[in-house]
Design a protein that fits this description.
about 325 residues; alpha+beta; 5 helices; elongated
């Protein structure tokens, strides 16, 4: 190695050593400075606990408090990056004609009890902590599911959906509760359903309920899904309110009825479970058609559809 290269290498090593010593000196100075005690201002966030059940905190209640502290530089540095949260117990608050408040002595004691022993609270930005509340009432309203169900082909949802709980209590100011009659869930869409389902969905607090709260935030919605089939039956048409001394013959004499139900239920369904009638009193003028309607049908079927809504007829006098 040439002498010039050796000199350059030595110079670089000296510079590195100097920088290391400089860094160590700076860190030692910084630790020394941060270990010293200072007096400065900082801000604490307030968290209210043990709020009486009959009251609700207003949005304009104080969220923080400015204080003057005596503490070490390390502690101020920690507060700068992670603001301290102070819990304020409202079970001991007082009230008068002006409203509810936490006394200066109680307010100060609660803050001091949550500071480390090496911190000293010197000053607060307010003497007394006044708190705004709403007097609350409760109201029970039903849950409205905002759910779109799209069963798979040849499947149907059996009956109404089950909502647990089906009713929910809302607490808040009377003027807000008076305008609400139900609470909706978030929008949910279930496609190609072919089996029973059970899902948990969030509730949506309407925007107008700014100072109200729900007792629960979620509900469970479940439903039964079954595979259905169809059955076509021929049902005789019965004419009612026929004038005395007359006979009638309808064309056709039977109406096809399409019935949808569970496969096992369809096996037990027969034409005697249905009744199709035509009311002659509803006949008008020279019209040769009579309207027919289904007045009896079996239970536990999803849908029943008349394949015709009218029949022709011939009237004969005896």
């Amino acid at each position: 190695m040439e002498q010039k290269d050796i000199k350059r290498s030595n110079d670089k090593r000296k510079i590195n050593i100097f920088l290391i010593f400089l860094l160590c000196s700076f860190l030692a100075w910084l630790v020394s400075r941060l270990s010293e005690t200072y007096v400065d201002r900082t801000t604490f966030d307030l968290e209210y606990i043990n709020v009486p059940d009959s009251l609700l905190l207003a949005d304009n209640s104080f969220k923080n408090v400015d204080v003057r502290l005596r503490a070490s530089g390390f502690q101020f540095l920690g507060l700068y990056y992670n603001r301290k949260k102070i819990k304020i117990d409202l079970s001991t608050m007082a009230n008068n004609q002006s409203g509810f408040y936490v006394t200066q002595l109680d307010f100060r004691k609660q803050i001091e009890s949550q500071l480390s022993a090496s911190m000293t609270l010197l000053e607060l930005d307010r003497d007394t902590l006044f708190i705004d509340f709403y007097k609350v009432e409760s109201k029970e309203v039903p849950i409205t599911p905002n759910i779109s169900l799209n069963p798979a082909q040849n499947y149907l949802v059996d009956g109404k959906l089950k909502i647990e709980p089906s009713l929910i209590s809302i607490t808040g100011p009377k003027k807000e509760l008076d305008i609400i009659n139900s609470i909706s869930t978030t929008e949910v869409e279930l496609n190609e359903i072919s089996e029973d389902f059970s899902i948990v969905v969030d509730l949506v607090l309407p925007e107008e309920l700014k100072n109200s709260e729900l007792t629960i935030k979620k509900v469970r919605i479940s439903g039964n899904v079954f595979r259905f089939s169809e059955k076509l039956l021929e049902i005789p048409v019965e004419v009612i309110n026929l004038p005395e001394g007359t006979q009638i013959k309808t064309f056709p004499s039977t109406i096809a009825v399409l019935c949808k139900a569970r496969i096992d239920r369809l096996k037990d369904i027969n034409p005697l479970d249905f009744k199709v009638v035509a009311d002659f009193q509803e006949h008008r003028g020279d019209n040769q058609d009579l309207q027919v309607s289904l007045i009896e049908q079996p239970k536990d079927v999803y849908s029943v559809q008349l394949m015709m809504n009218e029949v022709e007829f011939i009237l004969k006098r005896q």
